[in-house]
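Session log. Operator J.P. requested a structure for one protein chain; no other inputs attached. Running the standard single-chain path with token output.
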Amino acid sequence: MSLPDPPAGNPGGAEDPLSAVLAIMRMARALERVDSGLSAQQYRILKLAGAGGERSARLAERLAVAKPTLTAIADSLVAAGLARREAEPGDRRVVRLHLTDAGTAAVERADAAYGQWLNRVLDLTGENDRIRADLQLITTALDQLRRPCQPGVSAPASTAASAPASAGRS
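Structure written below.
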């Protein structure tokens, strides 16, 4: 699907590098309004906790929230019966958050709601598969940015700069 060029001087046009930032912010805001039964923060915490009972400090880091914010949200999830805290065997100072059966069911309902919304948006682009692949690349780059730099490991920007933007696309 080819889109027309934006008019000259269009501050939100495709030539404006910040138009992508605005699109991402708009998508994030739209996702917050999806009726999933969970807030966006609750969903993110439950998804990460469901993936393996993360330590609270690690969850806060991965979610880019302050520990007190995470604690408050985790308290509400525990009070709602969606999660439970478990002390680490051998080190009671370490507490991990795990999903309850109700939490697993809530995440499955939210997954379906968010998935339906995303499918509708991507179907309108006519580029569903390509955009999904690009989103996976962005996820990988974000993971790399979150990790401390390691000697001998290239930053994502240097990798992206050396590969043609249209590689693998027709």
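Operator note: The radius of gyration is 20 Å.
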